């Protein structure tokens, strides 16, 4: 019989958590599984709970957004305990890539017969990302967004619109496989999955189990091309854009003349002048949904989710 622990972030998706225990109680098949519930009380608490739970439960489920998924997942790295996800945040990048249902009832139901799937983990100067890490503009936005009261896709897009016209590309030294070159980049994303979240795809060909980082470099671009660049992320053609380059490698070093802002799964972190990014192959198991419950997205999904009451 499966033992399942749900770790619920009471802040993420306020309003949806009020009935989460009812969904869990109704959705978990008692013939095959038993469950317990823990609520996080402070930042970092999900990591503490999942670290203690690793090896004692079959599945530990993060109920929250990308930050909760990251904290919970980090505690399970290298263990036999699988990470489950009930996505209630604003981005939900890894959940979308793994096609986890966004209807809570279906996400819970999927845990009765999950497909246990090992995936890679990205390391960056001692921090870990299950989905995405980065420096440059996306890290700048992550640091700004962390200080905002208003969350959600619309608030995120408003922040990007306000900041991108002011942000300038930076000059970095990048080393891959012993070969170094200097380059200017608006952002450099280190992708494990295909997308940031909200179906905004930065690495359309990325795979979470190939032992490689998709290193995505977007060079400085004319501001008037921003709508086209954004749309190319929505329709998954960003890798064909002339301002974008994607390199696959298991490790990359980045040097800059001052300490860098970074992000791991959307959470802001401070880095030094040198950044070492690597991949840890198949470091964590994820409880993916069975085929009949997988949620695929269409091209209109990111636009629909910006409209109140439509997501």
Automatic annotation (TrEMBL):
Cofactor annotation: Mg(2+)
Q: Name one GO cellular component term.
A: plasma membrane
SUPFAM superfamilies in the record, alphabetically? NAD kinase/diacylglycerol kinase-like
Q: Which GO terms describe its biological process?
A: phospholipid biosynthetic process
In terms of superkingdom, the source organism counts as Bacteria
Q: Which molecular-function annotations from GO does this UniProt entry contain?
A: ATP binding; kinase activity; metal ion binding
Signal peptide segment: none
List the keywords (alphabetical). ATP-binding, Kinase, Lipid biosynthesis, Lipid metabolism, Magnesium, Metal-binding, Nucleotide-binding, Phospholipid biosynthesis, Phospholipid metabolism, Transferase
Q: Which Gene3D superfamilies match?
A: 2.60.200.40, Probable inorganic polyphosphate/atp-NAD kinase, domain 1
Task: Check the record and name the PANTHER family matching this protein.
Answer: LIPID KINASE YEGS, SPHINGOSINE KINASE
Q: Report the protein name in the record.
A: Diacylglycerol kinase family lipid kinase
Species this protein is from: Xiashengella succiniciproducens
* Record lineage: Bacteria, Pseudomonadati, Bacteroidota, Bacteroidia, Marinilabiliales
């Amino acid at each position: 019989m499966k033992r399942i622990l749900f770790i619920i972030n009471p802040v993420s998706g306020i309003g949806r958590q009020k009935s989460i225990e009812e969904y869990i109680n109704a959705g978990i098949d008692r013939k095959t599984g038993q469950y317990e519930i823990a609520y996080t009380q402070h930042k970092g608490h999900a990591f503490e709970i999942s670290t203690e739970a690793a090896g004692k439960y079959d599945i530990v489920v993060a109920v929250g957004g990308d930050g909760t998924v990251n904290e919970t997942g980090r505690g399970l790295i290298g263990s036999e305990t699988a990470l489950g996800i009930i996505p209630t945040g604003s981005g939900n990048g890894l959940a979308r890539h793994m096609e986890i249902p966004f209807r809570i009832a279906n996400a819970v139901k999927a845990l009765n017969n999950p497909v246990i799937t090992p995936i890679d983990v990205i390391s960056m100067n001692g921090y870990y990302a299950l989905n995405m890490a980065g420096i440059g503009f996306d890290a700048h936005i992550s640091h700004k967004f962390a200080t905002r009261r208003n969350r959600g896709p619309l608030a995120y897009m408003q922040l990007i619109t306000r900041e991108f016209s002011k942000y300038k590309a930076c000059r970095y030294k990048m080393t891959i496989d012993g070969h170094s070159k200097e380059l200017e980049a608006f952002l450099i994303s280190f992708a494990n999955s295909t997308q940031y979240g909200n179906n905004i795809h930065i690495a359309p060909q990325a795979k979470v189990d190939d032992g490689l980082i998709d290193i995505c470099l977007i060079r400085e671009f004319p501001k008037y091309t921003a709508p086209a660049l954004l749309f190319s992320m929505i329709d998954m053609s960003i890798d064909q854009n002339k301002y974008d380059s994607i390199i696959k490698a298991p490790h990359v070093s980045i040097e800059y003349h001052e300490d860098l802002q970074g992000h791991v799964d959307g959470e802001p972190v401070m880095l030094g002048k040198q950044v070492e990014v690597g991949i840890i192959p198949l470091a964590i198991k994820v409880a993916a949904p069975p085929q009949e419950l997988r949620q695929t997205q269409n091209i209109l999904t990111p636009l629909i989710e910006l409209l109140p009451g439509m997501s």
